[in-house]
Structures are given as C-alpha cells and as structure tokens.
Amino acid sequence: xxxxxxxxxxxxxxxxxxxxxxxxxxxxxxxxxxxxxxxxxxxxxxxxxxxxxxxxxxxxxxxxxxxxxxxxxxxxxxxxxxxxxxxxxxxxxxxxxxxxxxxxxxxxxxxxxxxxxxxxxxxxxxxxxxxxxxxxxxxxxxxxxxxxxxxxxxxxxxxxxxxxxxxxxxxxxxxxxxxxxxxxxxxxxxxxxxxxxxxxxxxxxxxxxxxxxxxxxxxxxxxxxxxxxxxxxxxxxxxxxxxxxxxxxxxxxxxxxxxxxxxxxxxxxxxxxxxxxxxxxxxxxxxxxxxxxxxxxxxxxxxxxxxxxxxxxx
Length: 314
Prior knowledge:
By secondary structure, the chain is of the alpha/beta class. The protein has one domain (2-19, 44-304): Rossmann fold (3-Layer(aba) Sandwich). The protein is built from eleven helices and twelve strands. It has helices at residues 2-23, 80-88, 102-111, 128-146, 157-167, 190-193, 203-206, 225-229, 232-235, 272-275, 286-304; strands at residues 47-51, 53-54, 76-77, 92-96, 114-117, 152-155, 174-178, 186-187, 219-222, 238-245, 251-258, 263-266. The strands form three sheets. An eight-stranded mixed β-sheet has the order 4-1-5-6-12-11-10-8, with helices on both faces. It has a two-stranded antiparallel sheet with strand order 2-3. A two-stranded antiparallel sheet has the order 7-9. Helix 2 (80-88) crosses helix 11. Mean pLDDT is 84; it is low at 1-40, 59-69 and 307-314.
C-alpha cells in the first residue's frame, strides 16, 4: 500500500513539473549559450566559498553538535566535512565568514567560482545571518544573469535557506521526523535518474537509491510535495528530482535543481558518508562513499565552467 501511495505521489509530482514548465519561458543558462564545452577554457584551480554559521558547532551541555545558535553569537564555524568534500572534488575551500564586513564579502565573492551553503542548526528567521545569506544569494543570481556561471549548492539547512529565499516566507517549513535517519531517495520520474547530479553517480548505485539507505538525513524541518507543488515560487523556480520518507513515512522533497540557474539543493547530507564518524547511523558502505564522491565531482564540475581571474589575494 505504501509503495502504491509513493508511486501515485511521484506521478502527481511529474504532472506538476510538466504543467509548471509549460507556464514559464525557456530561459537558457549562460553555459547553454556556448556551442561546445571544448571551446571553453576551463578554470582548473577552482575556489569554492563555504558559508560559516554563528556558534562553534558544538553543544557543550549535551556533547553533541549544536542544534541552534542565533546570529548574535560572534563565534563562527564551518564543519570540516564540507572542506574535505570540496577538496575531494578538486577545488580549494574559501571560508566565507558570515559576519565579515560587506567589502570583504564582496572581494571574496568576486574571487570564488561557486558557493556551498552547509547544513547546521542556525535560525532561519530574519536574522543578520539570514540577511547576509540573502545578499550573497542575490549576488549569485545577478552574476548568472550577466553571463558569469556561478553555482550554488545548498545542503540540509542550506536547502531550507534556498526555499525561504525563493518564497520570502520564513515560516514555510513543515516539521518532519528525520534526524539521524539514513533513508532512500525516491525519484519522481525516470528522467531524474540520469540527469543533474545523478548523471554523475554510477548507474548501479542510482538503482539502489530507492531500496538502500544511502542518503543520510538529519533534519527536523522540510517541505512536503503537496506544499511544494502548490507554491509557485518553488515549483516554477525548481525542478524536483527526489522525495524521501521520514520515520513516519511522511514524504518530503529531498533533491531539487533550479530550472534556469545552476542551483542544486539537497535536504540530505552527501558529505557525511565519507567524512563524518560521530554518528553510528551514517552509511559508510562502498556505494555510500561513491555517492559522496559523485556529488562532489558534480558540484566542482559546475564551478569549472565559471571563468574567474583572481586579482587579489584573499
């Protein structure tokens, strides 16, 4: 019965995607206007910005990673797994400190080839942290509109940030029971299996996503397919690739890509499979490690399209 319900939901999502695509113009990405990838001199030393978050990433009372810091905290952190993830794809990580002066942020933004919005426990209300993220997000959209290919990759909290930035609704997220809960990825259609980031994952692993728990989930909030499809700011801007169930078999959107910008959002944690060992439930099988590496390769390949000359040292 659960399988039938999931199948019907996926078909429903596919119809929503097709209907939405028919309503919006076919806007070509800057990269799509180039005739051949062979004609483009690639930047083989890409820099990826990783946005820091308020706090130190550690809850000293529970000896666990922090579940919430607000942006009044002057301390800032970036989890090491994101740095390793970026480096494994062949890029160098640049810390984007959320409370740096705007002049410094602009200089760093001008130097980097893409940005990673990591997971974490920071408040997503209208805080100074959110407003800085909003600023960087709009810089990225403007860069792409000018023809400068600039990818954004949002993970878990970063995925939720992208959803709030698109809707300008800080209360749009719904509660889910998916903390410390590795799970499957259910593709909404066959097309999604072999496009976007999944085109970079070995086919044998892709076929296991719906039966094996290869995607580490670690969140309390998310967006249901019903809410997503009824929100034009999300459904018209993003294409849904996968959904996933929480512990109560309540489905949430787990992978999306923007229709007309190089933006990828995942509610799950590809980086944890290879680079985090503090939680027993994180999958570390050979196929799980392939997932980490494939997603890293995909994101950094996106960044390689961006032609950037570093004029100043960071």
